[in-house]
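Posting for a labmate who doesn't have an account.
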Amino acid sequence: MAKPSSCPDLYDECRTISITKLKEWNYLNRNDLKTGNISWSRNNTVHSRIGILVNTISTRPFVELDYKCNDQVINYKVYLISKPTNIGKGEQWFFECPSTKKLCRKLYMISTYFLHRSAFKGALYGKQTYSKNNRDQFREFKKEFDIEDAYETTYSRYFKKSYNGKPTKRYSRICKKLSGSKIGSLDRFGI
């Protein structure tokens, strides 16, 4: 009898479709019908592409996905649900998973279809695969990486250290983070 795989599918590495990105690309305008393509790439090389149609004119808005997977043509609809925001201004869109009927803002493709994450058994996030010892080490090194990122941020192209003669809030937070670190203050870096 074969041993079960110890390499689970990772949500971090699979293809996803998110409401945030669809909204950013102007697919979710009210009373609109828009088609296009979504592609995924690695090292500037496109490795996957799907056709998408978003229909918000219909009485029941939907996203229609059209792609090939394992030499099989796949075409199905994922319905969209609109709910008012918690502050009462505007609306928030959700996918209704075709399998679980749960509302979500991101769909994952691990096998053949884009579904809610609870539809996949045995899939994990990358951090869930780390041992307890590794998690402790990452937590310790994260402090050092955060300090290095803060330092690099201050030298990024459009970073503003001051506005109207006063230090910006972002710059003040970075100064505070660096002054509390083992490395020392920003003066050590010539900032």
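Reply:
Got it, the structure tokens are right above this. DSSP finds three helices and eleven strands in the chain.
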